[in-house]
Amino acid sequence: MATGKSIPFSAFWLRSSVVSVLISLISDTWVIDPL
Q1: Which residue has the higher pLDDT, 8 or 10?
Q2: What is d(CA 5, CA 33) in angstroms, rounded to the nearest whole number?
Q3: What is the pLDDT of residue 32?
Q4: Backbone torsion region of residue 33, taken as left when φ is above 0, otherwise alpha when ψ lies between -120 and 50, otherwise beta
Q5: d(Cα 31, Cα 25) in Å, to the nearest integer?
Q6: Per-residue pLDDT at 2 exceeds 70
Q7: What is the pTM of this model?
Q8: pLDDT tens profile 12-33
Q9: Distance between CA 17 and CA 13 in Å, rounded?
Q10: What is the mean pLDDT of residues 1-10?
Q11: What values do phi and psi take at 34, rounded to 5?
């Protein structure tokens, strides 16, 4: 049971980390070269 809960939690944490990085990169791109 612990493993079943641990994997989705890790996946969610990893996904939210990636989203954070993507937003940061997009913001930097807009600052350097606005649309």
Answers
A1: 10
A2: 42
A3: 65
A4: beta
A5: 10
A6: no
A7: 0.52
A8: 889 999 999 999 988 887 776 6
A9: 6
A10: 65
A11: -65, 150
DSSP assignment string, the chain: -HHHHHHHHHHHHHHHHHHHHHHHHHHHHHHHS--
15, two tokens? 């996904």
Q: Which residues contact 12 (CB under 8 A, 6 or more apart)?
A: none
**What pLDDT, on the 0 to 100 scale, is given for residue 30?**
74
**What number of residues does the chain have?**
35
Sequence-distant (6+) residues with CB within 8 A of 2 are none
